[in-house]
Structures are given as C-alpha cells and as structure tokens.
Write a structure and sequence with these properties.
Elements: E1 7-11, H1 15-27, E2 31-35, H2 38-47, E3 52-56, H3 64-73, E4 82-87, H4 92-101, E5 105-108, H5 113-123, H6 133-143, H7 145-172, H8 175-191, H9 195-206, H10 215-241
Parallel strand pairs: 1-2, 1-3, 3-4, 4-5
Helix pairs in contact: 2-3, 6-7, 7-8, 7-10, 8-9, 8-10, 9-10
Length: about 240
C-alpha cells in the first residue's frame, strides 16, 4: 500500500514531540517542514504551499486554532489546505472550538503512528497498489506477451539492483548515488506504471533542494518506494506467467 507524497507543515513547541512526529511522517514518505511556534508556522504557511498542516494547539504566540483562522481568511494557497490540530485536550467543547476555527480533524496527543496514519489517510487515501496494471497490460498488448514478460522481468531486476544501490549509498550517505538512482528510475518507473515511484524519483532528482533539510531520510523514502514497486511488479509478473493478468 502506498500514498502520494505530501508536503506537510508540522508545528509544535515541544522539540521531542516535533521530532517524533516528523520522523513518523517521513517514514510514511512525506516531505516535512517544521515550525516551533505559531508565528513561525503562520509565516511559513503564508509563504509556501502545503498539502497538509499539522498544528499543535498550545504553542507560544499563536495557538494552532489562531493560525488556522488567519489562513482560512487569507488569500494564500493554503486557505483551503487540509489542517489537522494536535491537542492533549479531548473534551467535546474543546473539539468543537477547534472545529469552529476551521480545522478539518483533531489528533489527540500523544501522537502515535497509528493515529497519525489514520488521520492523514482519511483525507489522502492510500492507493491499493504501487503498479498501474493497465499500463503493464497495454505494454503486453503492444509488444506481445513474450516481449512484455521479458521487459517486465528486466524492470523487476532493475528495481532489485536499485534497492541494493540505495541501501549501500545510505551506509556512506552518498548523495550523488541517491540522485543517480533517482535519475534512472524517474523514467523507467513511469514506463512500467510505478507512478508513485516515478513521481518521487523525478522530484528527488530534479529538485533535491526540497529535501535539503534531511536528504538521507528522503533517500530512505526512495528506497521504500523502490521496494514497494519491486514487490508489485514481481507479483504482476508471477500472475501474468500463471495467466492471471
């Protein structure tokens, strides 16, 4: 199961909570920018576009609800973005107050990976597979089953090789190797219907500055996308060989 990479603004004045939530989101494959208070969060949200904002309610300066109201009333690109509040208070009147401020959802602290994933996928559903079967089927139809099987087998082998290369590059934190693998996969993955992988690889290869805050975490995300695509392509090849396309 995979989901589209989201650009997320995460704001929390507790550094341990901020870092833990950031790591959870990055492991899900998302790009995360962080803020440590409400003023900083608002400034970022007015300057840059985000798919999702996760805002702690009790931050110094501006609470998350105040940031939300400012954004909803603004003309920025984020005035209609999905906003999820983070709060340790779970009383009904508190939840209603936050909803009235314009948030879309509330996650009760402490934030866990399960709560986070449930809330995020509510608004950004996961796709059922990392390979578009229609793309592969068309390849088989255009080139013939024998050629299609051979080419898909080559793609499966390429994904395995790229997984090994990224794994080794992570050990030495070799950024050039990350980019080289992304360069290879941004086109071949698209050709074989691995759209999530192709999109991430293209963004990583062509705009590495977006990941500059932690490019090694981004490489881990690339590795996860490669492994997802490898599993899906291998499964498709096996089913095709058994006449189950």
């Amino acid at each position: 199961m995979s989901t589209t990479m989201l650009r997320i603004l995460l704001a929390d004045d507790s550094l341990p909570s901020l870092m833990a939530t950031q790591i959870m989101l990055e492991k899900m494959g998302h790009e995360v920018l962080v803020a440590t208070d409400g003023e900083q969060a608002l400034a970022l949200a007015l300057r840059e576009r985000f798919d999702l904002l996760l805002l702690d309610e009790y931050m110094p300066g501006l609470p998350g609800s105040a940031v939300t109201m400012r954004l909803r009333q603004s003309t920025s690109e984020n005035n209609s973005s999905c906003i999820i509040a983070l709060s340790g208070v779970h009383k009904d009147d508190e939840r209603q107050r936050l909803l009235d401020s314009g948030i879309d959802e509330l996650i009760i602290k402490p934030v866990t990976a399960d709560r986070l994933k449930e809330a995020v996928t509510k608004f950004f559903p996961v796709s059922s597979t990392s390979i578009d079967a229609d793309v592969i089927s068309k390849l088989y139809a255009d080139l013939g089953d024998d050629v299609g099987r051979r080419l898909l087998g080559m793609f499966v082998e390429e994904l395995l090789q790229m997984s090994v290369r990224i794994t080794e590059a992570l050990k030495s934190e070799n950024v050039d190797e990350y980019l080289a693998v992304a360069h290879i996969l941004k086109n071949s993955a698209a050709l074989y219907g691995a759209d999530d992988l192709a999109t991430f690889a293209r963004e990583f290869n062509e705009n590495p500055e977006r990941f500059a805050t932690d490019i090694h975490s981004a490489a881990k995300t690339l590795l996860a996308r490669i492994d997802d695509a490898h599993h899906a392509a291998k499964e498709y090849a096996l089913n095709a060989a058994q006449g189950k396309k």
